[in-house]
Amino acid sequence: xxxxxxxxxxxxxxxxxxxxVHDIASDCNVAQKNAKTExxxxxxxxxxxxxxxxxxxxxxxxxxxxxxxxxxxxxLLGEAPGAEEDRQGIPFVGQSGQLLDKILAAVGxxxxxxxxxxxxxxxxxxxxxxxxxxxxxxxPYVIKHISLVNPKVVVCLGGTASKALxxxxxxxxxxxxxxxxxxxxxxSILPTFHPAYLLRSPSQKREAWxxxxxxxxxxxx
Length: 221
Ligand code: URA
Prior knowledge:
It is built from ten helices and five strands. It is an alpha/beta fold and about 220 residues long. Helix 2 runs parallel beside helix 6 (about 130-150).
């Protein structure tokens, strides 16, 4: 087990090296160890995450954890809370969330049938994109979060979630609609467009709908 932890940590460190980031290694070590060894329930994970030392927390109103069916076969992974999510402490309740609900409804799903969470549990100031440092710090908790729900499929909503989970720099054009896997999870992973992007580029909604249908069909197979 320790050997496996060490291997995971060194993979993360290699990833830092690839990206030129070196100064967060010790924070990440702590996150890796916290997330891997001591947490057995979503409630415990939430408590541990509340204590993570990260500056964006100071600007946020609420921590936004996860919501929905804790035994769902489908987990939706977003980027980070926006203003409305920050106010309510619930993921995807703003404009993007309303579109997400419509997409789910279009394939016969709703929030009682899926679990929804984000890469970051706090809103980055001004809705900026999460930094590599923030993503790297939270990735072990995201992996733990997904493992505790234990879905069959993870749908990554948008580039930030997709690249963070798959640890890739590939573009959404390359990733979208293609099944992927990572060593740390048993679930299959499908990157699709973020609802906020679909609000800006409605012509892409069809692709997102196809992706959700693909997920739905996989569940029924
Ligand atoms: N965008 C996200 O990525 N997550 C949310 O919870 C809301 C908007």
